[in-house]
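Researcher: Here's a chain I'd like modeled. Treat it as a single chain, no partners, no ligands.
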Amino acid sequence: MIAYEDAVRAYHAELRAFHYPMLFRDPPYDPAVFAGLPDYTPPQ
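Model: Modeled as a single isolated chain. Structure tokens:
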């Protein structure tokens, strides 16, 4: 269970790093940016 929680926390950190610059710096909208959206990979 701890590995799962660690993986979710790490994924959430990646999502924040991806989205926060777009939310707070207001760059021009570009749909191509979402190709770099982080993927969640559950622990084995």
